[in-house]
What does this fold into?
Amino acid sequence: MTEEMQRDPDVFLLGEEVGQYQGAYKVSEGMLARFGPRRVLDTPISEAAFAGLGIGAALCGLRPIVELMSWSFSLVCFDQLINNAANIRYMSGGQFRVPVVFRGGNGIAHQLAATHSHRVESLYMRVPGLVVVAPSTPYDAKGLLKSAIRCDDPVIFLESEMMLSDRGEVPAEPYTLPLGVADIKRPGNDLTLIGWSKMVKLCLAAANELAAEGIDAEVIDLRTLRPLDMDCLQRSVSKTHRVVVVDEDWPCCGAGAGIIEQLYARVFDELDAPIGRVCSEDVPVPYNHHLEQAMQPSVPKIVAAAKQLLGR
It folds into this structure.
């Protein structure tokens, strides 16, 4: 964010506690001192108000970054995101662009209970007019966020709260990563594991366990959920002929279910087994730590699903 604000004076950050408090998770640490209160703007606790402010600013030619303390709170400004941000460019016949990024913590964290643990991918990736991004590594997060800030469409940028302390190799020189392009995090030949955000870490750990048993799993990180890189997925499944989609969502109408529906139309004749899915249990997220862990996807669940497809 700092690099993009230095590069482009039209970029600014707004949200709850992004300035004086330096971010609820210290993501904006030092930015108020560097850019001042006109470009790092503390807002009232009203998601509907400051989401609308960001959309209006984007319509006026600025490039706002709107921080949501939790994507669970985006339900309060759902109308602004779905009715306004997603539709204005289309309904104006392309006369207005909406270059705004909405970013913040998404998914199940650690004992935040049901109302603070929503996984919102399926709510937004089904909406034409939005771009939806969910990085899994520091390298990807930086490159994708820079592309999101430069994008002329509204971007939903989902950051896993459980990965904010993750470390990884990030080049010193500026770089961007293209939106809508998946990444093969681990090549393989026996089956394909598809995930995004923190599910990629589980898929990689499961692939290592499967490798110890002679099963060569390919791991694909979607990185962008809308638009989906279906060509990458099709190539992989055409090679491995078996696939498991791993997502944090609920079983019914979840993000993974939507991806599977699109996959079947493309790869049905290539499959040697039905597409597998590992997702959360069909319950609200419990506060109790052990119950919370039990209802989520896990490495043993992914390994078991992969073995089932392979008849092991």
In short: The domain at 183-309 is CATH 3.40.50.920 (Rossmann fold). The chain has two domains: 2-163, 183-309. The first strand starts at residue 11 and ends at 15. The chain has a mean pLDDT of 97.
